[in-house]
Automatic annotation (TrEMBL):
Keywords from the named record: Membrane, Transmembrane, Transmembrane helix
Gene designation: bchF
GO molecular function terms attached to this record: hydro-lyase activity
Source species of the chain: Rhodopseudomonas palustris (strain ATCC BAA-98 / CGA009)
InterPro entries to which the protein is assigned, alphabetical: BCHF
Protein known as: 2-vinyl bacteriochlorophyllide hydratase
Tree of life domain: Bacteria
TM region positions: 21-42, 48-72, 118-137
Example GO biological process: bacteriochlorophyll biosynthetic process
Length: 161
């Protein structure tokens, strides 16, 4: 089981679950737009400013979801990061953060040329896709666990626990 019954209650009670539920798809949409702009720049040489702004926005959204995710993890599991249920997702999240941060450092310190910076952004995006997949699989496992638990537990007033 991903969540104990107590953790499930805390997860369902905290506002941070809703925040994560909103930010995750927003981040994915920002990612898709930015990926398109970065690939356009790398393919044609056009649109550097738009690609750059999009990567910065994607990085800021990532930082936001990481901070709110740490708060969520604290509310649900009692620790800001590396709760056993999300240990490997958190470990990989740090690689995602590191690569996005390397991009920002390169951009703001003028390290490398524009193409180098965009290749770092693509590496960051590749790690983001892996990390997002980890979280989607974890969400699916949690839903499966809850369906199975609902089959085992008697319903109260016609609702499932």
């Amino acid at each position: 089981m991903l969540y104990t019954p107590e953790e499930r209650v805390r997860r369902d009670a905290t506002k941070w679950t809703l925040v994560q539920g909103i930010l995750a798809p927003v981040q994915f949409v920002v990612f898709l737009i930015s990926l398109g702009l970065v690939l356009r720049y790398l393919g044609t040489g056009d649109g550097y400013a738009a690609a750059t702004v999009s990567v910065v926005i994607k990085t800021l959204v990532l930082y936001t979801i990481m901070i709110t995710g740490a708060i969520w993890e604290r509310e649900v599991f009692g620790c800001y990061l590396f709760a056993p249920a999300f240990f490997w997702e958190d470990v990989f999240s740090f690689l995602v953060l590191a690569l996005h941060t390397v991009y920002l450092v390169m951009l703001f310190l003028g390290l490398g040329d524009a193409r180098d910076q965009m290749y770092v952004a693509l590496a960051a995006y590749a790690t983001y896709v892996v990390n997002a997949t980890q979280f989607v699989l974890k969400l699916r496992a949690a839903r499966r666990d809850e369906r199975l638990a609902g089959l085992r537990e008697p319903s109260v007033s016609g609702s499932r626990a």
